[in-house]
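Protocol step 4 of 5: obtain the predicted structure for the target chain.
Materials: sequence only (see below). No template structures provided, no constraints applied. The aim of this step is simply to have a reference model before the mutagenesis design in step 5. Sequence pasted as it appears in the construct record:
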Amino acid sequence: MTAQQIVSRIQQKLADLKIAWRAQTVDTFKAGSPDTEVKGIATTGMATFDLLRRAAAAGKNFVITHEPTFYNHTDQTAALEDDPIYRAKQQFIKENSLVIFRFHDHAHALQPDPLVVGSARMLGLTQYASPTEPRIYVVPETTLKAFASDISKRLNGRALRVVGNPDMNVRRIMLGPGYSVPPLTSSFDLSIGGENPESGGNAEYVLDAAALGQQKGVILLGHMMSEDWGMKEAADWLRAFLTDVPIDWIPTGEPFSTPA
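Step 4 output (structure tokens):
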């Protein structure tokens, strides 16, 4: 099949699930020819140069990425035409007959959302999902410090950020990977997401709550550490109806580090 035929099958599967393809969407081809014959599919959180090298080495020439390829949400490249990094990336894509397609808006439209499912699974939260409250997880009582330490080990993350009293009790957690860090309310103790503004966001709310003697917490995993795992779920979803092409999840990995 060609890359375009695969996307058409994805669109048909979504239609079968009563999910209409949006007229305005970032889910479009980003590089390569849609007419390229697909030898293998790689799903991933972000199509970085390193990821593309690993995909090509694994024989996967169709990369389905959740996040942008060219450094901005809508992959506008007019200002990048003379940029040596952009040009090198495009050259590598051309030389290796790669095709890149973004699967963002319609991935989040699936129920359950694979980005949430994948993040919850990696964080060890799946078994604690509330049967009635979406994205709420009710865990055995622990402390913010202990919980944050546990998920840091699970993710092998290098840049996890925590706001709140380390000794506060945690029981009710709300999960929102990527930019959708759930705003804190009185209905849960801890908000977990990818990235959030320091001002005008959850961190500021936690500081104000602490000043009033209320215990709230936020854990920011980083965007890839919160959504990369969800593209493994997306690969599983694709395999259910794309049975004639090999499909693998190739993680982008943690982009950040901390000083020694």
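Step 4 remarks: Residues 3-111 form a domain with the Udp-n-acetylmuramoylalanyl-d-glutamate--2,6- Diaminopimelate Ligase; Chain: A, domain 1 fold (CATH 3.40.1390.30). The chain has two domains: 3-111, 114-223.
Proceed to step 5.
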